Structure formats: structure tokens, C-alpha cells
Prior knowledge:
The protein is α+β, with helices and mostly antiparallel strands. The protein has a single domain (2-151), classed as 2,3-Dihydroxybiphenyl 1,2-Dioxygenase, domain 1 (Roll). It has helices spanning 14-26, 63-67, 69-79, 94-101, 125-130, 167-174, and strands at 2-9, 31-36, 41-47, 53-59, 83-90, 106-111, 117-123, 136-140, 157-164, 186-190, 197-205, 208-211. The strands form two sheets. It has an eight-stranded mixed beta sheet with strand order 2-3-4-1-5-8-7-6. It has a four-stranded mixed beta sheet with strand order 10-9-11-12, with no helix packed on it. The longest helix is centred in the N-terminal third of the chain and has 13 residues, at 14-26. The model has no long low-confidence stretch (mean pLDDT 94).
Amino acid sequence: MRLDHLSYAAGPDGLAGTAQRIGGLLGRNFVEGGIHPRFGTRNMVLPLADHTYLEVVEVLDHPASDKAPFGQAVRARSALGGGWLGWVVAVDDIGSVELRLGRQSVAGNRRRPDGTELLWKQIGVNGLIADPQLPFFVQWLSPDGLHPSTGGVDDWSLACLEIAGDPQRVSEWLGETVEAPLEDVKVEWVAPHGTPGIIAAQFQTPSGLVRV
Length: 212
């Protein structure tokens, strides 16, 4: 179990505009990700060190976005002006998470602009919708060399997550201590005074620490 990526919902400036704004803060450009046909969304990706990445995601005018929990979550966050959607944990065997949560994972896929198709399974987006401090889980089915973090360099890395929430609640959701997937990332927990979830993320860049 490890931190896989952070997800940021596009704001009023749209996918490209939001990615350009955040990329400008970090001093690095996002790359085109592709469409998630099962979820009715598309993304742009910024690879980071430590096998992690940052995605900006946008909902499409597509029936899948009304049916799929992930599409619903992105639409709802963007409707509020965009911002941090959540964090995602990678597991080697999603079957154990299915047993613990009492439901089945769903298949996910995305075709990159070069035609390469990425495949995975995911579970837990409904938990994120109900309680945004909670991550959801993915198991990658594509070869490791195709992971969206490919191309990441040590000069850009996630340094700290600021989360409004309860680490005990998140640990119960994970099935183990919250430190397990975040061992290399500092976490600052803040008591929620409204909606729980990611407040900000701090990234180490060649120009120093940047808070988004």
C-alpha cells in the first residue's frame, strides 16, 4: 500500500486552464492524459518522484459521468469552483479491499494520446464522496513502466499533505495505520471546521517549496 496520486478537479477555467495555472506555480508543464470512458472524465498529468503523480481531472458531457461515482465526484467538486478532489492509494491486491468494504471494484481505463491504453481497478470513490478525507484505492493492471509517474524526476516531489480530518478514521478505512501509504510524505492533520478533505498540498520543486 502506497500513495499513488493526488486528484484535483478543474475549476471554471477548464482542464487546460487549471493545469496551466498549477503547472505555472510548480514550474513544470502537465502532459495530456486522455479520456476515462467508463467514468466520463479526462485528465492531465504531472509525474512526480517516488512513483507518484498529480492529476487535474475534468468531467465530460457524457452519460457515463452521471452514472459513475468518479464522474459524479468530479462534477460536484468542479461545480463548487474546483479544487482538491482527493488522494489515491495503490494496492497490490484489491481483492482484500473488496472483502473489507463488502463490494466489488470497478474497471478503469484511459487511452493516452500516443494510443497506449492504461488499465486498472478501483474501489472506494463512494467513500470519498461521503467523507472527502478518505482516499480511494487502485490496483494497476498495466505494466509498471506505463504508470503515469513515469518521467517523474526527483526535483519535483510531494512534501506534505494538509488534510482536514481524523487520522484514526482514515486508518480504519485503510485497514492499517494511515502512516503506511504516506511514510515518505509529511501529513498535517487539521480538525475540520466544514467539509473534511485535502486543504492543500506542498511540493518540493527546484525553486523551493510550493503550496497549492
